[in-house]
Design brief:
single chain, 231 residues, alpha/beta, 6-stranded mixed β-barrel, 25% helix, 30% strand
């Protein structure tokens, strides 16, 4: 039996050659997404001052009213969660109703201006350990759950940068190292800025912690990370 042809060439080489052929044939050039830089300075200011360092077109989706306005613009009205949930996860029609809800909403939001927004949302972060090479601290992050009239909103990054490091000024760095040395928990805010994934801009689901509570997950491709320690 003949064996399939195998090549030692790098898969990336084939991607580059394929991209070149497509461009030569008149197709639009292909771009490969880059991971946002996870090593950034620590901002020490009030949350309101975050807008001054962000891109001018970024929509701050931090306050409840701003998140609800975004959902109003994108999807119009909240789902009828009671009907979709039915008798819960063991209801034979539960999964089908949830699937149909997502499919219908995806179709209706096509072409909506809010789908093109660049947005900024917050996740809570905590300093984990000191990195002597960079002079900064590694950051552990977790999702933030925002209660709204639509349900619980949890922004979902398509991908979080693999190495999150925050760089404070020298004087503050020594203070933070001392606090960590005493076993204190040092919390910061991690602001993530990016654009929605067109194919799966918002995912509707149900909370695993609260029976029947609707969960809304806008999916964002991250372009920028900022670290904030509010005064």
């Amino acid at each position: 039996m003949l064996k399939p042809f195998q090549s030692d060439a790098s898969p990336m080489w084939f991607l580059i050659v394929a991209a070149g052929l497509l461009v030569g044939l008149g197709y639009p050039s292909l771009t490969f997404s880059e991971e946002a830089d996870g090593t950034r300075p620590l901002l020490t200011q009030k949350l309101d001052g975050l807008r001054l360092v962000l891109p001018s077109d970024a929509h701050l989706l931090i306050e409840t009213s701003a998140i609800e306005h975004f959902l109003d613009e994108l999807d119009g009205t909240p789902p009828d969660w009671t009907t979709v949930y039915g008798h819960g996860h063991h209801d034979p029609g539960h999964d089908d109703r949830l699937f149909n809800l997502n499919r219908e909403r995806d179709a209706k939001r096509e072409g909506k201006p809010a789908l093109q927004w660049r947005v900024t949302f917050l996740w809570p972060g905590e300093l984990s350990d000191y990195d002597p090479r960079s002079g900064g601290f590694r950051v552990a992050v977790g999702p933030k759950f925002n209660p709204t009239s639509w349900g619980i909103v949890r922004f979902k990054p398509e991908e979080v940068p693999s190495d999150l490091i925050v760089l404070p000024i020298a004087a503050l760095r020594d203070v933070l190292r001392a606090r960590l040395g005493k076993g204190e928990h040092v919390e910061i805010e991690v602001a993530m800025t990016g654009r929605f994934i067109q194919e799966e801009s918002v995912v509707y689901d149900f909370s695993h912690d609260e029976e029947g509570r609707g969960l809304i997950m806008p999916v964002v491709r991250i372009e920028r990370i900022d670290y904030l320690m509010a005064k």
